[in-house]
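Action item from last meeting closed. Structure (499 res):
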C-alpha cells in the first residue's frame, strides 16, 4: 500500500518535487532554479525546455534521495505559477516561443486598446478579472499575432495553449504521443477566457480576444484522477490534482471555511480569502477567482489581491544592484538601522496590481536625502511588501464585509522576522505562520490525495494544521498611521510614469 503523496511544484523562479507522508510532513524533496529571461524592458520569459528538464531532474532527485519507488506514491499533484502563457505544437511538443511570464508587461498597449472600448472592467462580470497585462488572454493573443505563422497554425488546429500546469501535465502523461491536454478550474480562471459561473470557456470572450477554440485545453476539477505519469521514476502513479500556486497555498493552509484567508510571501505576494460557493464581485480593486473544485462538488470561490513584486525586490537588490550577496542578508542589513530613514520604496516594476491596476506605473524610491544609506534602502524594500499587503487586506475587508482577526502567512519571506513583525505592526493584527510551511506543495498533494482516497476529507486535512509562530502588533497607532500615510503618498508618485 502506498504511504505517500507527492507534488510537482513549479514556481516563478524554481521547480520542486516534494513527497509527503500522511500527516503532511516532507519525507523527500529536490529543487532547481531556472533562468529568468529579460529580452526587453518589461518583458519576462521562461524557456519551456529548461523547465521540463528541471522537472524531470527534481522528480528523479527526490525519488532517489528518499529511496522511493513509484508504488510508494498514492498520487501526484501539480501546482504552478499562474497566468504564464505557453503555446506549443500538438504533433511535436515544440514550443513556438518562450513562455510569457505573468509579470511580463508587453501587452500593455493591448490592455489600453481594449479598455478604451468598455473600460478596464468590461470583462469583470463574467471572468472576475479586470483588463491587465497580468492575465493570459492577451499574452496568448500577442503570441498568435507576433510569432510568424502562429495564427494560421492555430486556426488549422496544429497548436496547443496552456498555462504551465497544462504543459507539465501534458508532458508527464506522454506528450505528443498520449499527453492529456487538461487544465483545472483555478488556472482556467486566470486566463480571462473562462466564465466563472459555467466554468467553461466563454465563446464571446474567445471572439473578443480573437482566439481559436481548438487551442484550448479541457477544463477539469482540481481533484480527480486525470491519468497516469509515464516518466520512469514515477511511472504509473496517478496524476490526480492540479491547483494554481496561490489556490494551492490556500488549500494547504486549510482555509476551507468562508472568511478563512492566507497571504503567501514569494516572488509576488498573494492574499486570498475563501468566499465559499458564492461569487463575490469586487468593488475595491481585487479579483474574483476559483479557489478549488473537488471532483463533482460545487466550486469554491475566493477574493484575491495580487501583488507583483515582493521577494522579487529582494532578488533585484541582490542580483542587479549587488546590495546584498544572498537573500537572507536583507534582514541583517535592514536591522542595522532603526527605521527607513524617511524613504518609501514602491516596487512597481511590472506596474501596480491590486488594488490599483496601473499598468503604466513604475518603481519609485521616494523621500531620499543624503542621510539615507544601504540599511534604509533594505528596510524600505521589506516594508514595501507589508504596505502592499495592507492595501490589499483593507480592500478585501471592504469587499467581503469580514474583518480578519489574524492573517495566516506562508512562503519564503516568512523566515524574515523583521518583515513579519512589521507586517503585524502595520496591519494591527497578529500574523501566524503554520508548523508545516510547504503549504503550496502540500495543497497540491492534498487534492491529489483526496482524489485517490489517500485522505478521507477536508476535516482530516484541517487536523494537520498547527501554529508554528505568531507575531503580534507592537507599534503605536500614531506611528502606524503616519507610516501608512507616507506610503500612500509615495504610491501616487509611481502612477502614469509610462505615457
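Sequence:
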Amino acid at each position: 500500500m502506498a504511504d505517500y503523496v507527492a507534488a510537482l511544484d513549479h514556481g516563478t523562479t524554481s521547480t520542486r518535487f516534494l513527497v509527503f507522508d500522511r500527516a503532511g510532513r516532507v519525507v523527500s524533496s529536490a529543487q532547481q532554479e531556472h533562468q529568468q529571461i529579460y529580452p526587453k524592458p518589461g518583458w519576462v520569459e521562461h524557456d519551456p525546455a529548461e523547465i521540463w528538464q528541471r522537472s524531470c531532474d527534481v522528480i528523479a532527485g527526490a525519488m532517489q534521495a528518499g529511496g522511493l519507488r513509484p508504488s510508494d506514491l498514492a498520487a501526484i499533484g501539480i501546482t504552478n505559477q499562474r497566468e504564464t502563457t505557453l503555446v506549443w505544437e500538438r504533433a511535436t511538443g515544440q514550443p513556438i516561443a518562450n513562455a510569457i511570464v505573468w509579470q511580463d508587461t508587453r501587452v500593455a498597449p493591448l490592455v489600453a486598446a481594449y479598455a478604451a472600448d468598455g473600460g478596464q472592467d468590461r470583462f469583470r462580470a463574467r471572468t472576475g478579472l479586470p483588463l491587465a497585462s497580468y492575465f493570459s488572454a492577451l499574452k496568448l493573443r500577442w503570441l498568435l499575432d507576433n510569432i510568424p505563422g502562429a495564427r494560421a497554425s492555430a486556426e488549422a488546429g496544429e497548436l496547443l495553449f496552456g498555462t504551465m500546469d497544462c504543459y507539465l501535465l501534458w508532458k508527464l502523461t506522454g506528450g505528443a504521443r498520449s499527453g492529456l491536454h487538461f487544465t483545472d478550474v483555478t488556472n482556467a480562471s486566470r486566463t480571462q477566457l473562462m466564465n466563472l459561473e459555467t466554468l467553461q470557456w466563454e465563446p464571446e470572450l474567445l471572439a473578443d480576444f480573437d482566439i481559436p477554440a481548438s487551442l484550448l485545453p479541457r477544463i477539469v476539477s482540481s481533484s480527480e484522477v486525470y491519468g497516469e505519469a509515464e516518466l520512469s521514476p514515477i511511472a504509473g502513479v496517478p496524476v490526480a490534482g492540479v491547483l494554481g500556486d496561490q489556490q494551492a497555498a490556500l488549500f494547504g493552509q486549510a482555509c476551507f471555511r468562508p472568511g478563512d484567508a492566507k497571504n503567501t510571501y514569494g516572488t509576488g505576494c498573494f492574499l486570498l480569502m475563501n468566499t465559499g460557493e458564492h461569487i463575490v464581485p469586487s468593488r475595491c480593486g481585487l479579483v474574483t477567482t476559483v479557489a478549488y473544485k473537488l471532483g463533482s462538488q460545487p466550486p469554491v470561490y475566493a477574493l484575491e489581491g495580487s501583488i507583483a513584486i515582493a521577494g522579487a525586490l529582494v532578488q533585484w537588490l541582490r542580483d542587479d544592484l549587488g546590495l546584498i550577496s544572498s537573500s537572507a542578508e536583507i534582514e541583517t542589513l535592514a536591522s542595522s538601522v532603526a527605521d527607513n530613514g524617511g524613504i518609501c520604496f514602491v516596487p512597481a516594476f511590472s506596474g501596480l496590481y491590486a488594488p490599483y491596476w496601473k499598468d503604466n506605473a513604475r518603481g519609485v524610491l521616494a523621500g531620499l536625502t543624503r542621510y539615507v544609506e544601504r540599511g534604509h534602502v533594505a528596510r524600505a524594500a521589506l516594508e514595501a511588501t507589508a504596505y502592499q499587503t495592507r492595501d490589499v487586506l483593507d480592500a478585501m475587508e471592504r469587499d467581503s464585509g469580514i474583518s480578519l482577526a489574524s492573517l495566516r502567512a506562508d512562503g519564503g519571506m516568512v523566515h524574515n522576522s523583521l518583515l513579519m513583525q512589521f507586517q503585524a505592526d502595520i496591519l494591527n493584527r497578529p500574523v501566524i505562520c503554520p508548523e508545516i510551511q510547504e503549504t503550496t506543495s502540500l495543497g497540491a498533494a492534498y487534492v491529489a490525495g483526496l482524489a485517490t482516497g489517500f485522505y478521507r476529507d477536508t476535516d482530516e486535512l484541517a487536523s494537520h494544521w498547527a501554529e508554528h509562530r505568531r507575531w503580534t502588533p507592537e507599534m503605536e497607532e500614531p506611528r502606524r498611521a503616519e507610516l501608512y500615510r507616507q506610503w500612500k503618498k509615495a504610491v501616487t508618485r509611481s502612477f502614469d510614469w509610462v505615457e
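Note appended to the action item: The first strand starts at residue 4 and ends at 10.
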